[in-house]
Amino acid sequence: AILKSIVEAQLLRVLVLGGDGYLGWPTALHLSDRGHETAVLDNFARRRYDEELGVQSLVAIEDLDVRAAAWKEVSGKEIPVFTGDLLDADFVYDVLRDFAPDAVVHFAEQRAAPYSMIDREHAVYTQHNNVVGTLNLLFAIAETNPDIHLVKLGTMGEYGTPNIDIEEGWLDVEHNGRKDRVLYPKRPGSFYHLSKVHDSHNMEFACRVWGLRATDLNQGVVYGQRTPQTALDPRLATRFDYDAVFGTVLNRFVIQAVLGLPLTVYGTGGQTRGLIDIRDTVECIRLAVENPAETGEFRVFNQMTESMSVKEIAELVAEHFPGPVQIEHLDNPRVEKPEHYYNVKHTGLIELGLKPHLLSDTLIESMFPVVEENKHRVEPDKMLPRVNWTRAKN
Ligand code: NAD
Fold first, then answer.
1. What's phi and psi for 25, nearest 5 deg?
2. Number of H helices, E strands in the chain
């Protein structure tokens, strides 16, 4: 316990990649608030997808420079901003040399499954952006300072829905009388989720052969929009996506409820997924950063706090909303098992000290006023799914 508090007290230099995004920005604030010297990097790809898809965040968000200046005003702390692309290897090397981080938190990927399934171009873009960006980062860490702890966002979707318990990254197997510990077999459901599987393999390899240290966080579906830091000033708000491409399921249901639109459940809604509150996301990252993996270790945590089926999520929103709510079942545009076994081990982060906000005792009602205030910005037709998994399209 004494050792743990010494590590916790140690202030680190942390670079947050994708620091302009839904989770990257609140994470940077949380780490900065905690006293870590925090910088952010982004190429603003996410803002360009908004233009491409003709959508916008439900809550208006400021430019990254304005956000960083507002944080300085509110907290007195600087968050330096590096603008550039992880696909530009020279830029990645330069930033690592310039900022000299102890830890790099990597959120900077294209993260929507439907976006990666639009057509060939979007699938190729997603895998190129994600896999090559992470490879550039692994090489830059190995060459500039192999001691840097890489904290990388993966997804629970890497595992898919196997008919056996999901372990934290690794599986002990006995085969023909011999035993080994192997990476847990993955069966993901989109080209986006596959990009994360490829990243995991590249990272495990870099740890094994170069002795890097990495934590892969297989995160569940995130909900919520406010953290203690983003709530301090409207200029610190993070994005809140509601459209069928980028809107995560609980967030989208809350918005549909407030607008008086039916909650759109795909298929029977029996698909079960791991979930996590945005306040727990930022806390998990802090815990991973402050308790680094060992040299040469590829450490995996399942960053989720509870499992629920899509139907249960819809019922929960309907139950808490102070008005009538309709639930509509649409043909599922995705290819996924409608009903399945789902039992996930997720004890690693709890052991490091995570105290989860569970949906059963979290006031999802607190999300309703945020939506109410911004509902004039919603374009309801953007909530209907248009990307279909079964059609391969050039
Ligand atoms: P987001 O799209 O809001 O943020 C990602 C940020 O990375 C964006 O600001 C984007 O501009 C930036 N980026 C993308 N490619 C880049 C590149 N090549 N160079 C520099 N910057 C680049 O996504 P988010 O919801 O904040 O998710 C962050 C991470 O967490 C992603 O890796 C995602 O896969 C993972 N994750 C998210 C969820 C969720 O529910 N939101 C769930 C599981 C895992």
1. -65, -55
2. 14, 14
Look at ligand 1, atom 35, and give the residue with the nearest C-alpha. Answer: 153
List all residues 6 or more positions away from 319 whose beta carbon is below 8 Å from its beta carbon.
none
Look at residue 361 and tell me whether its pLDDT is greater than 90: no
Angle among Cα 193, 296, 107 to the nearest 5 degrees reads 35
What would the pLDDT profile of 210-242 be if each residue is shown by its tens digit?
999 999 999 999 999 999 999 999 999 999 999
Sequence ranges of the domains in the chain: 2-240+277-304+341-357
Q: Domain 2-240+277-304+341-357, what fold?
A: Rossmann fold (3.40.50)
Residues involved in catalysis: 155, 192, 196
DSSP code for 313: H
Q: For a substitution probing ligand 1, which of 20, 23, 64, 135 has the most ligand atoms within 8 Å of its CB?
A: 23
pLDDT at 1 over 60: no
Please report the ipTM that was assigned to this predicted complex: 0.99
Residue 209 has pLDDT above 70, yes or no: yes
Ligand 1 contacts (CB < 6 A) are: 18, 20-24, 42-46, 85-87, 107-111, 129, 133, 153, 155, 219, 221-222, 248
- Rounded to whole angstroms, the Cα distance separating 131 from 136 reads 9
